[in-house]
């Protein structure tokens, strides 16, 4: 059967002497693997559309299950600016790998696609990548069914003036329920406000937000704890980001 879909290249790998296999995140067909014959050849007409982060329209033949074979492709947005910048490429790679490892094959949902698309667009438009990725992580957790409960106590459901954050229990704890997780963390008012906004915000609505370095560092730590506790993924792209951060690149 011939499929025609709009998708984003979240993974690209060499296959054989001249071919590539790309993994697409699509809006209506989930995550799809497609074989692109001859993509590694210098004069290949399909070479450009196999590049990571590329948004395009892909036509491919595919049996009921398994790998598709590309028939034609048209680039909608190449996102070349993300690939040419080491820093932005690292964040974009993390966004794609996180979705790839979290989204199961054939799991359909426009939310995954729209949030990744908005994330890459935000990175390309030079919005603060640390804020972009923190919001994106919140959306991935929500899409996977592990979204943190921030606005109310995750234990009793009541609202309170002050909370602690419990990545293990998946959200905020009011003073009355703080004993359920002795490791729950106090957070600054700025970080709690961001988490509260992120809980309700769509990636597509993110504007240019200015956040102090200290607040971003605290936000990154809290979101890292949520990701580790709820998903437990070891990602090569995150390790690379940590290396960039370690050496101040």
From TrEMBL:
Keywords: DNA damage, DNA recombination, DNA repair. GO terms for cellular component: bacterial nucleoid. Residues 1-78 form the DNA replication/recombination mediator RecO N-terminal domain. GO terms for biological process: DNA recombination; double-strand break repair. It holds the Pfam family RecO_C. Involved in DNA repair and RecF pathway recombination. Belongs to the RecO family. This is DNA repair protein RecO. It comes from Paenibacillus antibioticophila.
């Amino acid at each position: 059967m011939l499929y025609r879909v709009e998708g984003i290249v979240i993974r690209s790998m060499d296959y054989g002497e001249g071919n590539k296999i790309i993994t697409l995140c699509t809006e209506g067909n989930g995550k799809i693997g497609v074989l692109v014959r001859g993509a590694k050849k210098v004069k290949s007409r399909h070479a450009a559309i196999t590049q990571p982060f590329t948004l395009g329209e892909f036509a491919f033949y595919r049996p009921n299950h398994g790998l598709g074979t590309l028939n034609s492709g048209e680039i909608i947005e190449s996102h070349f600016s993300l690939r040419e910048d080491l820093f932005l490429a690292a964040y974009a790679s993390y966004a794609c790998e996180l979705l790839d490892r979290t989204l199961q094959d054939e799991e359909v949902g426009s939310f995954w696609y729209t949030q990744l698309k908005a994330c890459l667009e935000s990175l390309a438009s030079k919005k603060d990548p640390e804020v972009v990725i923190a919001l994106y992580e919140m959306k991935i957790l929500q899409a996977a069914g592990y979204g943190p409960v921030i606005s109310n106590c995750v234990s009793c459901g009541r609202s309170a003036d002050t909370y602690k954050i419990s990545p293990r229990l998946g959200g905020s704890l009011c003073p009355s329920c703080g004993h359920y997780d002795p490791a729950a963390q106090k957070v600054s008012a700025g970080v709690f406000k961001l988490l509260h906004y992120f809980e309700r915000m769509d990636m597509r609505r993110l504007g240019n937000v200015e956040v102090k370095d200290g607040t971003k560092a605290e936000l990154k730590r809290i979101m890292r704890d949520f990701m580790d506790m709820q998903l437990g993924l070891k990602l090569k792209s995150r390790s690379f980001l940590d290396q960039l951060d370690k050496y101040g690149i």
